[in-house]
Design goal:
single chain; alpha+beta; GMP Synthetase, Chain A, domain 3; 3-stranded mixed β-sheet
């Protein structure tokens, strides 16, 4: 169960990360931030994303991991937070699986 403060921070992280990756990502793939989580102590966060085409996922994940420091700087420049969370980035497996189920449903 998350607190309203955590929910607000999750929404903020999701939005700011989406803005950052829209600006920084190359033209070879489309990175879409789908979710974010934040620990109860606000010290650690995770940004979840999907990538299109899916064949570029590993490259997109490597790119996102390389850009974590710049993402933290971007957050620092656009928010007035006492402490910046340490961020992790991950591919949103649940969203990818949901999209695959939708594709299969359309074929049948």
């Amino acid at each position: 169960m998350t607190t309203p403060r955590q929910d607000k921070m999750r929404a903020f992280l999701r939005a700011i990360a989406a803005d950052f990756f829209t600006r920084e990502a190359g033209k070879n793939s489309l990175i879409t931030v789908t979710d974010a989580t934040i620990s109860p102590d606000f010290k650690r966060g995770t940004i979840y994303f999907t990538c299109f085409p899916t064949s570029e996922e590993e490259k997109a994940l490597d790119f996102a991991k390389r850009k974590r420091t710049e993402l933290r700087e971007y957050i620092k420049d656009h928010a007035h937070l006492k402490n910046l969370p340490v961020l992790e980035v991950k591919i949103d497996e649940g969203e990818r699986n949901r999209q695959r189920i939708d594709e299969l449903g359309q074929q049948g």
